[in-house]
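Researcher: Please generate the 3D structure of the following complex. Treat every line as part of one assembly.
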Amino acid sequence: MDPNIVVGPNPRMRAIFEYVALIGPGLGSVLVTGESGTGKEVVANALHQHSARRNKPFVAVSCALFADTLIESELFGHERGAFTGAMAARPGRFERADGGTLFLDDIDDVPLSMQVKLLRALQNRTVERLGGTRSIPIDVRVVAGTKRDLQQMVAEGKFREDLYYRLNVLSLTLPPLRERREDLSVLAEHFLRKFFARRQQALPPISEGVMMALQSYDWPGNVRELENTCERIAESCTCGKVRVGCLGASVLFPSTDSEFGEMPQQMSVTDMASGVVNERRGPELSAQSYPDLPLDERLRRIEAEIIGAVLAETGGNKSKAALRLGIKRSTLGDRIQRCGIESAQVS
Amino acid sequence: MTTSEMVETVLERLRPALNADGGDIELVNLEGDVVRVRLTGACSGCPSAEMTLRVGVEGALRRVRPGLRVVPVL
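Model: Done. Output below.
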C-alpha cells in the first residue's frame, strides 16, 4: 500500500484508515479537517490510491496560494487572451485531474465570490475556462482540506452553506499529534529510517532519552514537524546512536515555555482540574474582570477560567467538558491551546 | 531569580532526558553575560549536541534576559 501511510497503535487513527479504505472507492466529496501538518494531503492521496482512479492523476492544490483573482484561472483554466499575459490557453486543475482526484487544500481560504463558481462546477460536473464559452465536462473526485471548522465559518457567514454541504458528503477529522502520542515512536522510527536510508545508512538505535523528549513535546506543527525533526537528526547524527543531543533546540526548549515568573503565566490543565485556578483567581466572572488589560487578553483569561472551571468539574476529561460547554471536542482542544493552557499534561 | 538560578532551571528541564542517555549537563561558570556550560557523558564532544545546547539554552535564557551568551566548554 501507500508507503506514506504509517499505522501506529492509536485507535482513532486506525479507525480513520479503515474509513479511508471504505470510502476510497466511492465518488462522494470528502472534507478532511485537521491542523496544519496532520496529514490531510496524505489522507487525500490514500483515498485516491484506494479508488479505481489510482492510475489517473492525483492533483493537489492549495487554495491559499493564489490571489483572489488568480484562483479562478488556476482551478478552471483560461483561454488565450482571457487577460493580459494569457498568451496561450491553459487547462485548470480540474481538467488536469480529469478521471482522477482533485485535492483542494485550504478550502477555507477560497473567497466567497469564488465559492459560488466552485459550487457550480461541482454540481454540474463541468468547468468553463476563464474567457471561454464552452462547458467542459469533468470527471473528478474532490477531496477538500481545511484547518478551520467550516461549520463554524458557515455560521459566521464566511463560507457558503450550500458549498459546505456539497463538500461535506463524507468527512474526516485528523487528530493533532499531541492527542495521539502513542503513535510517536512508530512515526519517528519510520521517518528516521527513511532519512537515514537517504544517506545510505541503516537506522541506528534510538535512545530512551530521545523518546522521552519526543513524548513530552507538544508538536504544534504535528506530523510534518516530527518529520522535519527526524530529517535534522539523520542529517547531523554522527555517533551511531540517536541521542538527546541530536534533537533540535526547538523540541527541547519550546518557545512557549515559561519556567520563569517574569513571563506570561501559563496554566496547566492539571492545575485547572484540581481547582487551583479557582483558588488563585476566584470564581467570580464578570465584564469587570481584568479592567486594565486589552480586550483580547481579558476575553482570553475569562475564557480560560470558564474552561478551567468546567475541566475541574469533569476531572480533566475534555470530551465531557466539551459537551458541557456546548462545543465540539476538537474546538475545545483549539481553545485550550489558544488560552495558553498546557495540554501536554492531559492524557 | 539570579542568573545562575535561571540557568539551573533551564538545565534542570533538559536533565532527565540527558540522564536517560547516560549524559549530563552542568553550569561551569558565569562571567558577565557569558554562561559556560559543559556536556558530559554520551553527547559530549558531539558538534550537533553542542549546537543544540548553544541555541536551545541560549534561546530559553534570552527570552527572559536578553544579551546572555552560552559558550559550551569541553
